[in-house]
What does this fold into?
Amino acid sequence: MVSDNRYIGDISPELHTLGCRTILIAGLPPIGCLPIQITAKFKELDRKCISQQNVEAQAYNKRLKELTFQIQMSLKGSRIFYVDIYKPIMDMIRSPEIHGFTETVKGCCGTGLLEAGPICTCTPLTPLCQNSSEYLFFDSIHPSEKAYHYVTECLMKEIIDKL
It folds into this structure.
């Protein structure tokens, strides 16, 4: 979906009319592993990914991938690609040490449990972590710069030959 509550299948023809021919559509990350989701489900002592939410994210991604192919077939001259961000993020969660992470279930900013985006202002009571490159998540929702770098590398390997 896009910000004005229209589905990608509705907005893609508009983009095509405006001249857009190559579109990358990213799937969902492992939603059940976002620190904010873990905080909502578990107490501080038992922080782990929520399997059912990840199953639902994978089902959504499967349908989205099918939809991107259908949209491409309906828009002459278009190249619409589904890009998988679920797998690289899950790779970092499952093998944090390989990627240099020491923290995967809370963010670097503030408590790392609830704060996100513009409300993630660090104060003396909720400071920024010392080494953000050791954190998979910058805040309770968004991956860190280091995590985004790895995701980007994976996506480039996946799509560069197709472009």
The radius of gyration is 18 Å. The longest strand covers residues 22-26. The mean pLDDT is 86.
